[in-house]
C-alpha cells in the first residue's frame, strides 16, 4: 500500500468536486491563492515554511483502494467522482514564495492553477502544512534575531503533536535555529540533533555525583551536565570536580535565569572552568531570550514557545479562488464580498521593492486575467518573489528533502538581512513594510 | 519496512539509556509519572486524551534498520546500546486514567513502570501525544458544555499540522463534538464526517443561483447552502427559491452572528422554511458559543480555536521519575528539588472522592514504595481512576482504534456529569476540585 496524503482533506472539497463534475464546472481553469490577511499577534513579518514538505506530500496525494472504499461506503461522492479521483494526479502549476521567504499581509504565498476540480482538493493539505510550519518559523525567526550570535536549539517535541513536532523542528531550523532534540527531524531533514540528560538521570542515581560520573564516562568531558536537580551551586562545584575544568557545559533548567546565569559564570570562572559553557532551557521565548542578552549565557534551548508559535500556533493563511474562466472562456477575478473577511480577487505577481538593499514595500501587481501580469524587469529596484514549484504537474525536487531544507534556511537568513531595522523589534506593531496593490490594466 | 514511532523521541533519552547500560543502572526498577502541575489558562478541569493513540504508537515503538543506522552513523549511542535497542520492546506496565477522564493538578495520568532503560525512552512520545490531544479535548469539552444540546462539528484541520489535525478531530469528538470535516479522522477513528461547500464553490459559478442549483442537484435538498458569499439576505431568499422550503440548512461564515442569526431565522420563517436549520462557523470559541446561546442557531462548526486548544495549545504535562530502587533493592521516592518546578515523588494511587455523586476532591495516596498503595475499597465514596493499560508489555487493545475512541467519548460524557456546577463556568478560576495528597505509611 502506497502512502497517501489525500485524506488529510476536508470532506467539502470532495463534495464540491463531485458537484462540479455534475454541472460541468469541474474543468474551468481556476486560480487559487494561499495568503494571509494579516500577521498574527502584531508581528512585523511572517516567515513562509512548509513548502518543501507540501511538495513531498503532493507526490503522495492520490486516492487508492482504501480511500475510494471509504468514499463509496460513506456516500461521500457519486460514482463519477470516484472514477475521477481514482485517476487523480495534480497536473496544474503552483508558483509561490520560496520556503524561508518573508511574507506580509496579502502576499500571494502560493498560487495554484489548474482546473477547479484539480486545484480545489489541495486546500486543506496546503493550509495545514503552511499554517503550522509558518507559525513556528515566524516565532523561531524572532527568537533567532533576539539570540544574535548565540546558538538556539529546538527541544519542544513533547509540547507538540508527535508528527507536528518533527515539522516544527524543521521550521525552527529554517528560521535560524541550529539544532533539535528530535531524532526523526535529524534523520528526515538532516538537522543536527543534541541532548545529553534529563533530571531523571540524576534522580536515578544514589547521588548526583554517581550520575555526573556516569554521564562523563559515557559521553566524555565535553558533555553538558544538568546542574539544577538539587542545589545549583553545589551542582556546579560537583560538576567541575567530577569532569574537570574542561567540562563542555552546564545546563540550567529552572530559577531566575538572568541572576542564576551570572552567578554560575562567576563560580565556573573561579573554579578555573573558563571554557565551560552555560546553556539555559527554562520556559524561554523571544522575550526571555532578549532579556538574557546581557547575561553570560552561551546557548539557548527552546521548547514550548517555539513549537506553539509563541502564542500564535497557526498563521491564519487562507486558500481562496481568486480568478477563473467563465462559461465563455474569459477570465474573471472573483472574491467574497463580506466585509470582515474580504479578499482581493485577481491573479497576482509579487515583488519586494528595495531601497539601497533594504525592503520598503511588498508590491503586488493584480490583474483579472490569467496571463503573467508583471515581470521583475519592470521593477529594477525590486526582487521577484515567486518561483515555479510545480510546472504542469512536475514537482521541482530541489525544494524537497534535506537539500531543500538547507536551502530554505540559507534563503531565510539571506532575505532577513533585507529587513529594515524596525522589523527586528519584538513589540507588537504594524507590518515592517506596507503591502501595495497595483492594478494592471 | 514496518512503521516505527521510535524516532519521535528526544535524543537525550537514548544517551541516558546508553549511559545507564554502561554504569549498570539501566535495569533499576523505576516508576515514571506523567502529570500536570497545573491546569493551563485557569481552566477548571482538564480532559485526558490521546491514550488510545499512544497505545497504538507503542506497538510501533521499535528500532529497525533505519533507526539503528542513523544512531550508529551519527554516534548517538555506543554498540552496547545499539544491541539493546535492536531488541527493544516495552515489557513494563502502564496504569493510567482512562481516556476521556477528567484530570486536575497532580493527577497521575500515566504511571509507567519498568526498568529505567525501558521506561525512560517513552518520555517524548507519551508527552507529545497526551499534551496535544488533552489540550484539544479540554478546550473542546468547554465548547461542548457551552453548546448544550446543539451539535458541534470540528472543522479546524487547516489550522493544525496535517497529522495533528487528525488527532485533534479525534480529541474533539471524545470531548463531545459530533462530527469532523477531516476525512482521515472519519476513516481512522470512525468519526462522522460533514461538509458541503466553500465560498469557492459560489465564486466558481457565473451566478450564486447556478452554484446553489448545482449543489442541490448533487447533494439533495437536505444539503446546507453557504449564503454569505455576497449579500446574506439575498442569499437566503435565493437559497429557498432554489431548494424550496425543505432546504436542510444555511451556513453563516461571517458577520455579527448573534444579530445575523436572528435576522436569518426570521427571514427563513417568513419564507415558510421553518425546518431549515442555521449553522454558524465564523471564528467560534467557547465564549462565542456561549454568547450565541439565546440566538436561534441550530449547530456550530468550530475551527481554529478547538484545534489550537483555544489559547492553550499544549497541556503542560511532564514525565518524571518518581520512584526507583536503590543499589540495595529498596524503593526510593525521588523528585527534583528546585522551587519553581518541584514535583511530588513517590508512587501514587488516585481516586475521585464523591459526595452524593458529585466530585469533591482528587484524592491521591502516595507511598515511597512499589506496592499498590491504596485501593478503592478503602474509599467507599470514591471512584478509582487508574486502569491497567499495558500489563507487562501486553497492551489492552480495548482502548485503541474506533472502539476505544467511542468508549473514551462515552466515558467522558459520563464522568463530566459528576463535576460540580462551578466547574462548568468558562471564566478563569482555580480547579473545580482540590487535589489532596495523602501519605501512606
UniProtKB/TrEMBL annotation, chains A, B:
Biological or metabolic pathway of the protein: Cofactor biosynthesis; NAD(+) biosynthesis; nicotinate D-ribonucleotide from nicotinate: step 1/1
InterPro entries, per database record: Aldolase_TIM, NAPRTase_N, Nic_PRibTrfase-Fam, Nic_PRibTrfase_pncB, Nicotinate_pribotase-like_C
PTM statement from Swiss-Prot or TrEMBL: Transiently phosphorylated on a His residue during the reaction cycle. Phosphorylation strongly increases the affinity for substrates and increases the rate of nicotinate D-ribonucleotide production. Dephosphorylation regenerates the low-affinity form of the enzyme, leading to product release.
Keywords: Glycosyltransferase, Ligase, Phosphoprotein, Pyridine nucleotide biosynthesis, Transferase
Annotated EC: 6.3.4.21
Name this polypeptide is given: Nicotinate phosphoribosyltransferase
Family named by the database record: Belongs to the NAPRTase family.
Gene3D superfamilies to which the protein is assigned, alphabetical: Aldolase class I, nicotinate phosphoribosyltransferase
Domain Nicotinate phosphoribosyltransferase N-terminal: 8-131
GO biological process, alphabetically ordered: NAD+ biosynthetic process via the salvage pathway
Enzyme class: ligase
Gene Ontology cellular component list: cytosol
Source organism of this protein record: Microbacterium esteraromaticum
Function (record text): Catalyzes the first step in the biosynthesis of NAD from nicotinic acid, the ATP-dependent synthesis of beta-nicotinate D-ribonucleotide from nicotinate and 5-phospho-D-ribose 1-phosphate.
Catalysed transformations (reactions): 5-phospho-alpha-D-ribose 1-diphosphate + nicotinate + ATP + H2O = nicotinate beta-D-ribonucleotide + ADP + phosphate + diphosphate
GO molecular function list: glycosyltransferase activity; nicotinate phosphoribosyltransferase activity
Pfam families membership: NAPRTase_N
